From TrEMBL:
This is Pyridoxamine 5'-phosphate oxidase family protein. It comes from Mycobacteroides abscessus subsp. bolletii 1513.
């Protein structure tokens, strides 16, 4: 279970943006073999990621495994889910991500880290 990933999006003109998403391990949930969901929390109030997904739902996720150096690269489409019954505590919405393609890179990074202590500021799952 990951505690972090990077999401890449683009605006209507194709200008790319990459943003960090993080939380307690398990905040990124697998709902089915092709569907992920994560809570979206208020960040810097610029709404770059959510705005980009509203205009163009195509996006990519990079999920690092800090212990092994491996990564998962997922491409697909995201849908902003405003149904409050899907929200985690403190979330402003949920994001549902439909997976189109998966690329796993074993030992993609030479760097290794041990288990990280979650921030006490992380919202509960």
């Amino acid at each position: 279970m990951t505690d972090t990933f990077i999401i890449g999006t683009a605006d209507g003109d194709g200008n790319a943006d990459a943003s960090h998403r993080g939380g307690n391990p398990g905040f990124l949930r697998l709902l089915s073999p092709k569907l992920l969901r994560w809570p979206d929390y208020l960040g810097n109030s610029m709404f770059m990621t959510l705005g980009n997904l509203h205009v163009d739902p195509r996006c990519g996720l990079l999920i690092p495994d800090w212990r092994t150096g491996s990564t998962l690269q997922l491409t697909g489409t995201a849908r902003l889910n405003w149904d409050e019954s899907t929200f985690a505590p403190g979330a402003q919405c949920s994001v549902d991500f439909t997976i189109d393609e998966v690329v796993e890179t074993i030992n993609g990074s030479p760097l290794r880290w041990g288990h990280a202590e979650p921030s006490p500021a992380n919202p509960p799952l």
